[in-house]
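Weekly structure sync, notes
Attendees: PL (lead), two postdocs, one rotation student
Agenda item 3: pending single-chain targets
PL asked that the sequence for the first pending target be pasted directly into the notes so everyone works from the same version. It is reproduced below exactly as submitted, 100 residues in total.
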Amino acid sequence: MAESWVQALAEGDAGRIEAALIALLPGEAKAIANPTGLETVMAWLADAEQVKTLDYWQRARWGRGGESQALQELRRVFAHGPQWRSNESRRSGLPPLYPD
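Predicted structure, written out during the meeting:
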């Protein structure tokens, strides 16, 4: 797990937490989309609890209250780092536009 992610969680700085999560996205996620926000992060998370907690934390940040409680939950749920989906698990089941 990247040191900046651990530091960002410990400090609780929202901007640093978001930037660190984006930086931790798997390479294939960065190749497919230009990650610029937590929506991209949530789309690549494999763990439903992590997605739910990240959404809760984001809503708390933007004025819904309970930011310190949301941060504590974020720290708990992400204690072992983000759990990413593989590119294969993100496929829609549709045939490729340009088959090999």
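Discussion points:
- Residues 91 and 97 are 12 Å apart (CA to CA).
- The radius of gyration is 15 Å.
Action: rotation student to compare against the earlier draft before next sync.
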